[in-house]
Amino acid sequence: MTQNDDDAVAAEPAQPGRKRDHSRDAKILDATLEVLAEVGAAGLTMDIVAARAGAGKATIYRRWTSKTELVIDAVAHMKRNQVDLERLPDTGTLRGDLLGLFKPQSIEEGERKLKIMTGLASLLSQDQTLAEAANAAVVQPWAEAHFALMRRAVERGEISASADIVTLSQVIPSMAAYRTLVQRKPMDLAFLVSMVDGVIMPALRPQPSAVPPDSTGHRPVPITSRVEESPSPRRAASVRRRSKT
């Protein structure tokens, strides 16, 4: 079937009074992910997805007006299934909770997900106007989970209430999306640990200005500042020589 035939099906109006059967959506989205992993974005067609899902092509077009829209929704469906906001890790520490979000997977499953994300990246490169929809599908589910964990850490006093958890909750999900969509690398535990220990936890530590003053009313001077203020041995010797002349 040609692209014109696809457009004709897409233009077909839904029957008046006919309600959308949401129970079939998950099956169609799962079929889309299977096809995308097998043949990539270029090989995916509505005909193949319809056949895999056991649905009519017109039925799919009544739900999704284009292949790209269908793929984005399928990826969003996959991401929502990966993180359960009602059952987030609760280890007692933010670091433990963030690392607890990682779910080990087989090599085969990792390769499948990477192929799916590669297919999405291929479609996005053709239509940059879909970036916002892709962000909502790929980044937001995980950002919401990170925000919930950080808010819990604030409530138990582990991190400051002034911490910008809205921004920081977006960091790892955004970097993970860049890693898979642009670098075409899988999201592994080593990457997650490096982000948590090298970026998130340091960013959440109180800054010197946030450290409360001591009993004399002075704030402790950071160690780095003390080092910078101390002259080097060579400089100190030079100063002593000048003082003798």
Please describe what this structure looks like.
By secondary structure, the chain is mostly helical. It contains 13 helices and no strands. It has helices spanning 3-11, 25-43, 46-53, 57-63, 67-82, 94-100, 107-124, 131-138, 140-155, 165-181, 189-204, 223-229, 233-244. Helix 2 crosses helix 7 (107-124) and helix 5 (67-82) packs parallel to helix 8 (131-138). The longest helix has 19 residues, at 25-43. The termini are far apart.
Structural features:
disordered N terminus, single chain, 245 residues, 13 helices, mainly alpha
Distance between the termini: 95 Å
Approximate helicity band? 55-70%
Backbone structural class: mainly alpha
Major sheet size, sense and barrel closure: none
Morphology: elongated
Indicate the mean pLDDT: 80
What is the string of SSEs from the N terminus onward? HHHHHHHHHHHHH
Oligomeric description of these chains: single chain
What percent of residues are in strands?
under 5%
The number of strands is: 0
Task: List low-confidence stretches.
Answer: 1-18, 221-233
Number of alpha- plus pi-helical segments:
13
Cα-atom Rg, whole angstroms? 26 Å
